[in-house]
Amino acid sequence: MSCEKNCKNGESFPQRKGCLNYLFHESLNNDDVFVFYENWVDEEAIKFYNETEHYLTYKQNVEALIESKQVFKLATLA
């Protein structure tokens, strides 16, 4: 599944203000595993997005489909 055209750098999502990039991955080994990689300008941008109607609707629609969820906050080293 590819959403690059619609999601690249948040261009099609004005509610993603502060999102530097958004990558959506599917595991090559397990069709049930997906990874979202998002790079934000700061924590405030994430908090703002998490309160948007877009995100709240998405969360409500997929909540029953998610078996487990892990969030990793990462630092760029190089």
Structural commentary:
Helix content is 28%, strand content 19%. The protein contains 3 helices and 2 strands. The chain has helices at residues 4-7, 43-50, 53-62; strands at 19-26, 34-40. A two-stranded antiparallel ribbon has the order 1-2. Strand 1 (19-26) and strand 2 (34-40) form a beta hairpin. The longest helix has 10 residues, at 53-62.
User: Sheet with the most strands?
Assistant: 2 strands, antiparallel
Overall geometric form: globular
Instruction: Quote the average pLDDT.
Output: 83
For the terminal residues, how far apart are their CA atoms? 29 Å
- Rg, please? 13 Å
The assigned structural class equals alpha+beta
- Fraction of residues in helix: 25-40%
Give me some keywords for this one.
single chain; 78 residues; alpha+beta; two-stranded antiparallel sheet
Question: In a few lines, what is going on in this structure?
Answer:
Helix content is 28%, strand content 19%. The protein has 78 residues and is of the alpha+beta class.
What are the SSEs and their pairings?
Blueprint: H1 4-7, E1 19-26, E2 34-40, H2 43-50, H3 53-62
Antiparallel strand pairs: 1-2
